[in-house]
Structures are given as C-alpha cells and as structure tokens.
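haha ok so turns out i had the wrong file open the whole time. this is the CORRECT one, sorry everyone. sequence first:
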Amino acid sequence: MLKWLILFLIAFIPPVIFVIAIRNAEHYQREPWAQIFLCFLWGATIAVVAALILEIILDIPLSASIHDYSLYSLILAVIIAPIVEEFTKPLALRLKSVKRELLEIEDGFVYGAAAGLGFSATENLLYESSFLSEGLFLFVVLVIIRTIGGCFLHASATAMTGYGYSKSIMYGKPLLVVLPFFILAILMHGTYNFIVSFDLLGGVIGIGAALLFALLCLRYIIGKIHAFDQTSKKLSLVQNFPK
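then structure:
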C-alpha cells in the first residue's frame, strides 16, 4: 500500500504543479479552480478509460493485419494512440461548467492543458509502476523523462485542441473549426512518440530530442497564453475607459 501511495505522489505531484503554473500564466481573469480541477480529473479518469477502450477496439484489426511487431508498435504509438488520446482528453471542455468559463480565447489553452496533465498523471502512474523492476537508477531516470516529456507533451497537444474549441465558442463558429487544431494536436503527439522511439546511441539522442520538442511545445503554449491575456486586458481597459 505504501509503495502505491509513493508512486501516486510521484506521478501526480508534478502534473499538479504544472497545472498551477499554466493556470497562473494567465494574469487577467484567471480560471476558477473548480473547473481546472474538473478538467484535470476528467483527463486522469474518464479520458484514460475511454482511450484504453478505444485503443483495444482499434488494436483488434491492426494486430490481425500487421504481423511485423516493429511496424505494429510504431503504428500504435505514432498513429492510433495520438488520435484516440487527443480525442478523449479535450472532451473535458464540453462539460457545461467548463464551457461556461470559456470567456476568453486563451481559456481553451488553460483547460486543455489541465485535461492533458490529468491524463499524463495517470499514465505516469501506470508506467512508473512498471519501472520498479528496472532498478533504482533507471527508475529515477525514467520517471524524470516521463515527468518532463509526457507531461509537457500532453499539456501542449491538448491545449491546441482546447484553443480551437474556445475559438468555436467565442466566435460562434461550428465545431468544424476545431478540426485543424485537433489534427495539429495529433501531429504533435505522434511526432513526440516517433522521436522518442529512435534507438540512436541507446535511445539517448531520441529521448533528448523528444524532451526538447515537448519543452518547445509547452513554451509556445505559455507564450500564447501570455499574449492573448495581455490583449484581453487591454481590450477590457479600453471598454471600461470613461467616455
């Protein structure tokens, strides 16, 4: 029991810290904690279960038609998993209490990232439980890689779909406007998985490149939150300026 408690804390504390940092990146009209928590909880529970079910369903015809294990694993990691996971995570923004809070264009980034980090927290827990058999040193290394790469990637990719959804809500456009951002999220996720799968110098180069990619994606998202937040603040000041 103690082992699982420690693993839970290791898996969940970093994503929670990242959620707080991303939420606080928005200085003007920050999002309420209740809705942030709801998105995180959705990502950590319903999105994970739904993704697992969909991946099992899609795996049946895939495993039956492809007998090359390397190709099968690559397709699963680079195509199937990104599509399924980037579909289930941002559905958190469709929840009524969350949807009501999409009042600024950058809000989709924040809620999308929260859902992505919730998903990453549970995924970290599942992966880290299997890392225990690798010895203490490798366990620590793998946990660090998962904490940085997995968390940053899930936050950034789902934030893109969240941004597309907030555009749809803010401008009263059909859900079809979300599609390009959903595709971009899939490409980001698939690219990360593809890079990390490289077996160059024992995987060191691939892992390093994947971590850098995830970091750059997250920096872009936070930069966009800052930029849109400043624009929203200026617009509010202009609208409230005495005539």
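The chain has nine helices and no strands.
again sry for the mixup
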